[in-house]
Amino acid sequence: MHFQHVAPEGLGYAVNRYRREAERHYQVLNDHLSDRTFIVGDAYTIADMSAWGWLDRAARVTKGADDPLARYPHLKRFFETVDARPAASRAHAVEKDHDFKKVVDEETKRAFPSNYPPAA
Length: 120
What we know:
Blueprint: H1 2-5, H2 12-32, H3 46-55, H4 58-61, H5 73-83, H6 86-97, H7 106-109
């Protein structure tokens, strides 16, 4: 997501490279979920909670896709299963109660200190 939303323009190689890597991970997880309800089997675990959080942002990873999980039916089913849980609704409510910064400016870019030389 960094190269698509925060990095300077003109980094097409990086955008493509990391988007394809994310899609590869989606495919691995999709295949893994083909015969199970949750990541570790039939039990809902912290692994599922963590994956849900990342999948909830799939539209940002696959910028421009109308249905970012359409190519991954097992992953989509998994996401929808976890997303229907009451805790997911409470997690989404945090966005409504907190004013997250949405502007990508110099301050935002400096949140990635590895992109800047250390101060002298």
